[in-house]
Amino acid sequence: MAFPKGFFIGAATAAHQVEGNNVNSDYWLQEHLPHTSFAEPSGDACDHYHRYEEDIKLLANAGLNAYRFSIEWARIEPEEGRYDMAEVEHYRKVIACCRENGVEPIVTLHHFTSPAWLIRKGGWEAESTVEDFARYARFITEQLGSELQYVCTINEANMGLQLAAISERFKLMAQQAAEKAKSAEGTVQVGMNFEKMMENMKFAAMENAQVFGTPQPQIFVSPRTSEGDRLVMRAHQAAKAAVKAVNPTIKVGITLSLHDCQALPGGEAFAAREWDEEFRHYLPYIEGDDFLGVQNYTRSQYGPAGMLPCPEGAELTQMDYEFYPEALEHVIRRVREDFKGDLIVTENGIAVSDDTRRVEFIRRALQGVEACVKDGIPVRGYCYWSLMDNFEWQKGFGMTFGLIAVDRATQTRTPKPSLDFLGCRAAK
Ligand code: GCO
Fold first, then answer.
1. 156 is known as an active-site residue
2. Tens digits of per-residue pLDDT, 186-243?
3. Count of Cβ atoms closer than 10 Å to residue 74 Cβ
4. Ligand 1 shell residues, CB under 6 Å
5. How far apart are the first and last CA of the chain?
6. CA-angle at 315, arms to 296 and 359, nearest 5°
7. How far is the CA of 265 from the centre of ligand 1 (A)?
8. In angstroms, what CA-CA distances link 116 with 13, 26, 78, 195, 219?
9. Bridge partner residues of 382 (DSSP)
10. Residues 37, 196: contact at Cβ < 8 Å?
11. How far is CA 118 from CA 17, 131, 218, in A?
12. Which residue among 113, 153, 190, 295 has the greatest number of ligand 1 atoms within 8 angstroms of its CB, and so is best to mutate?
């Protein structure tokens, strides 16, 4: 069965990971601290800021019909209340380039990075962020809304709580034995370098205090309190209202990082609690949203004592995730039990050097999505993470998720066979 006409087959990126020189963002400043936890700075990244036409053409010519990317708040509003209209025009050109190539732009307003000024005000634990984010969403919609149909407000709004839980687990493991700490990194769907982080924490606090005015800057991807978790969701609701007030035709949703939480005998309570934390407790905040962005990479398994390591002998990816593409179908079906709106797979992918494994992963993941569509679940699209190999946050450029390889010395793009494999799946 092919996907229905109009079904999005696309790829995803995030501004900070591909554009380059996001100098007014919190991440850029943290990457350049003397005791940074980052393996390397993002620098020019993939120079997508200047090469977006080439990249979007590669995507379109392979047959993909959607491109999910983020608009960088730190470019649009480098200082509080000052908007950079040249940056607004930049993103207008990116959106126009999508349309000229028959590609639907799916825009994310916040993808982990924030303007440094927001973090100095208290970041994602400060009440003022709700209004600051809504104001930014309103501004973007006033400027670019007439060219957009799909807007994701916040990428992986549940990441902060997941990190809070992982950080607790990591501290425990780090107390037991440093070599075990490595395995913590495979249990959260973002590039973290916990080992180096622990080593540098004492210095980093001082350096963060110099840059942000606090030793514990509340960037988006940091352990979140339950109040902060609710604040993020209220920021989503305020931004959604702002977008709709300017242009009610735009479809608005949020994206969540979701694991296929599986219980082995005795692990049922742990798995249920994890699913509640990752997904179900957000339901009141996303009720009535036009869609939910589902982001899934693997499964997590729970036994009588809690989360289990990957099964013995399992194939692992560069991120220490288990190679398990069936997780996507399971997550879509679980989400559908509680969320009755449309679903878009806004991220699903794999960090491997062998592209034949990426092709096999996509094949099996799409098989599951097709089965869901066939059963009447309103999945409207699939965006592979990522269009190109890019900056995997604290892990740097070593993780290769892309459908396109990038030689960063020359910024040469080399499409991998998986790009055409995915493109062929779009309904013509
Ligand atoms: C995330 C982010 C991406 C990551 C991707 C691979 O979901 O963590 O959206 O920025 O790069 O998930 O880890």
1. yes
2. 777 788 777 777 777 888 899 999 999 999 999 999 999 999 999 999 999 999 999 9
3. 23
4. 14, 17, 155-156, 189-191, 257, 295, 347, 385, 392, 401
5. 13
6. 60
7. 31
8. 21, 5, 8, 25, 9
9. 9, 345
10. yes
11. 20, 11, 9
12. 190
Active-site residue among 19, 31, 77, 156? 156
Tell me how far apart the alpha carbons of residues 45 and 351 are, in angstroms, rounded to a whole number. 17
Question: What separation in Å is there between the alpha carbon of 12 and the centre of ligand 1?
Answer: 10
pLDDT in tens, 163-179: 988 877 777 666 665 66
pTM check: above 0.90: yes
DSSP character at residue 115: B
Backbone angles phi, psi at 324, to 5 degrees: -150, 75
Best probe residue, ligand 1, of 385, 397, 400 (max atoms within 8 Å of C-beta):
385
Alpha-carbon distance values, 393 to 14, 30, 43, 147 (Å): 11, 11, 12, 30
